[in-house]
Amino acid sequence: MNGRASTVPRALVLFSGGLDSTTLLAVARSEGFDPVALIFRYGQRHSVEVERAVSMARHLGIDHQVVDLDLRSLGGSALTSDKVEVPHDRSEAEIGKGAIPPTYVPARNTIFLAYALAWAEVLGIADVYIGINALDYSGYPDCRPEYVEAFERMANLATRASTEGGVCLRIRTPLLRMTKADIIRRGSKLGVDYARSWSCYSPVRREGVGLVACGRCDSCRLRRKGFREAGVPDPAVYESKDP
């Protein structure tokens, strides 16, 4: 963090460099905050996610911190274990319905929000943004409205800032009830450059190009569907054609 002085209130933004959290940064700014990006290197399979997030934060001139957490040692997810396969080519009916997919990382949002809660208290920040979504999400239990409400209640019972300082921590989820297409439309109106964002769970190395999105994992399929429905060109490079 560069420690620059500002009269604009700050907000902590959980930032992965993905489509949703990239939009989230722009929304936080549009709502009158100076965002501080919190990026987690938690043992996810591919470092490209963190690299893109840091690159974008720097490009936007946003204060940011990369936090190392070893969730890979726990395993239990296709994103943190080579023993669990990332699902591909699931239909729209399968995505977001039925069993929780193997890309769910056990307690990830709870761990991230708990860290954010601690850092927000240290920085004197009352507003924490997280880009979870309850419509086009892939069945994750920690993306539900009742989860967010419960965490916020707990947070305001658990900190000195709230119990002694009278500070009310707010978990802000402006994307919660938006479709992926709605999120893209909102971001486009705010001038978001989605070419810098990264969504893929299972990237492919293409000779002469480097890593490209697979186009087949749930995240890629939701992204492609969102851009298609929003009527906005998707700048991502994919290995497979759009079905």
Main attributes?
Rossmann fold, 243 residues, alpha/beta
Give a description of the structure.
With 243 residues, this protein is α/β, with parallel strands linked by helices. It is built from seven helices and seven strands, in the order E-H-E-H-E-H-E-H-H-E-H-E-E-H. The chain has a single domain, classed as HUPs (Rossmann fold, 3-Layer(aba) Sandwich). It has a five-stranded parallel beta sheet, with helices on both faces. The longest helix has 16 residues.
Please state the second-level CATH architecture: 3-Layer(aba) Sandwich
Which CATH class applies here?
Alpha Beta
Largest sheet: 5 strands, parallel
- Write down the oligomeric state: single chain
Shape: globular
Radius of gyration: 18 Å
Distance between the termini: 43 Å
The number of helical runs is: 7
Supply the helix-strand structural class: alpha/beta
Spatially, the strands of the biggest sheet line up as: 3-2-1-4-5
DSSP strand tally: 7
Number of domains as seen in the coordinates: 1
Please mark out the parts with pLDDT under 50 across 5 or more consecutive residues, or reply none: none
The average pLDDT is: 91
Beta-strand content bin = 5-15%
- State the CATH topology: Rossmann fold
Order of helices and strands: EHEHEHEHHEHEEH
CATH homologous superfamily heading:
HUPs
